Amino acid sequence: PSNIFIAGSGQRIEIQVGDFGLACPLQRESHDPILATEMYVAPEQLDGQCNFK
Is residue 29 assigned to a domain? Predict the structure, then answer.
């Protein structure tokens, strides 16, 4: 799947799982639907208060 990231060299391998459902677009229209994993969405994302750090 495209949300599994594998990195490493030698005997050390690191595997991470990304959840793209929590991503917030940089420019958002007020009528855009919220795309998120329902059980894990941050309250500020529901309010449209994304932090772009």
Answer: no
Is 0.90 topped by the overall pTM? no
Name the 3-class secondary structure at 20: helix
* 7 — pLDDT class (breaks 50, 70, 90): very high
Task: Tell me the average pLDDT across 30-34.
Answer: 60
Q: Which amino acid is at 8?
A: G
Please give the Cα distance from 44 to 18 (Å, whole number).
20
Q: Give 5's strand partners.
A: 16
Q: List the domain range (segments joined by +) for residue 17.
A: 1-23+34-48
Q: Answer yes or no: are the C-beta atoms of 35 and 21 closer than 8 Å.
A: yes
